[in-house]
Amino acid sequence: MILKFCGFKTKSEVLKLPTLNVNMVGFVYYPKSKRHLEIEQINALAQFVPDGIDKVVVMVNPTFQLIKKMLKQTDINGIQLHGEETIAFIKQIKLNFKNIKIIKALPASQNIIDEIERYRPYVDLFIIDTPSKHYGGTGHSFDWTILKRIKQSVPFLIAGGIDANKIKQIETLHLNHVGYDISSGIETNGMKDKNKMLAVIQQLKGVQ
């Protein structure tokens, strides 16, 4: 199972990563988010992420120039697009940055299958999140049974208020997801909580 822990904001939070069995770490570049960081801050924090963990930046409807600047000024190796980015825009990113992983977040709506098929040839991974006009970060979950229609061949993570207890519930549904994207579910008072992170890892991957 792939684990992406998202929304890291401080050096003290990032320094908890070396002892954790996590696959991806996410930083948010979206000024309307409470977890927003400037490019300089993302670059500084990314230096403390251990080798072998993908460094992903979450962006909402960015311009190509902004992505270019982000990738030039940081060593981020993944872009998570969380808005209404077009296929043509994603093609442009792939054409210019061949080594960058492209993750597309989609809201868990009734037309999720159509949306996946539309983007599927152009992205490396999907994240299915709770629908929100604020583009994620709600801390709320959705009806996971909507994901039963997604084929095993589609790589996707489940997001939306995920914590160790909810993972236990989701695993009983036998969905085809490849992992989880978690932010608020590993926080206490807005800060990353190592005990909560360990609880998630133990739930998914066994003893840490």
Automatic annotation (TrEMBL):
<dbReference type="InterPro" id="IPR001240">
    <property type="entry name" value="PRAI_dom"/>
</dbReference>
<dbReference type="InterPro" id="IPR044643">
    <property type="entry name" value="TrpF_fam"/>
</dbReference>
<dbReference type="GO" id="GO:0004640">
    <property type="term" value="F:phosphoribosylanthranilate isomerase activity"/>
</dbReference>
<dbReference type="InterPro" id="IPR011060">
    <property type="entry name" value="RibuloseP-bd_barrel"/>
</dbReference>
<feature type="domain" description="N-(5'phosphoribosyl) anthranilate isomerase (PRAI)">
    <location>
        <begin position="4"/>
        <end position="203"/>
    </location>
</feature>
<dbReference type="InterPro" id="IPR013785">
    <property type="entry name" value="Aldolase_TIM"/>
</dbReference>
<keyword id="KW-0028">Amino-acid biosynthesis</keyword>
<dbReference type="Pfam" id="PF00697">
    <property type="entry name" value="PRAI"/>
</dbReference>
<comment type="pathway">
    <text>Amino-acid biosynthesis; L-tryptophan biosynthesis; L-tryptophan from chorismate: step 3/5.</text>
</comment>
<keyword id="KW-0413">Isomerase</keyword>
<keyword id="KW-0057">Aromatic amino acid biosynthesis</keyword>
<protein>
    <recommendedName>
        <fullName>N-(5'-phosphoribosyl)anthranilate isomerase</fullName>
        <ecNumber>5.3.1.24</ecNumber>
    </recommendedName>
</protein>
<keyword id="KW-0822">Tryptophan biosynthesis</keyword>
<comment type="similarity">
    <text>Belongs to the TrpF family.</text>
</comment>
